[in-house]
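User: Look at the shape:
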Amino acid sequence: MDLEFSPLPRGDWVLVTGAMANTLNKYQPVRLIGNPIILPKAGKPSRYQEERHHNRVHNFAYKVFTIKKKRPELTTRIHAQISESVSFSVDHNTSTLTHSRIHKYLHADGKAPCVVFWNGNTDKVLIEKLGTKHVKKYLDITTVHHPYNNNYDLVLQDMSRNKQVISKIPIGHYIKNTSS
């Protein structure tokens, strides 16, 4: 599972789009599209973003990514993802970016799923905010850089409190250009 999201003011998040795949439908990922979902801080229910609020998300992304972090390309991508996701769901009169569709997909075989994320610390938080229940385990695939020798490893780890490494595979050596 991979989710695309953006931060909002006051600690809220907006879930824009994503993709899921499972072992029942191998090699057929499901794209999550539709009206973005606002995931507020703990204690408040999530809600679907109304179309009139899309510009607020775009303006906030502009402030965060263009002004603060000086990465305007991220603002453009977030705005494009929101526009594409919403226009597709309107044009095709369908939406897969809903609480119930995500829950049904994860539990399609009637068993508690094991959810695997790619660099998914925030993805796990967002899935939990969606109220997804009965998940057996959350796993994360990520790359780890060893600065002392510039080697990289691909790591599969359990996302429980101890972040136990399940598997680690060396994937290469790369020297970053540190001069500006």
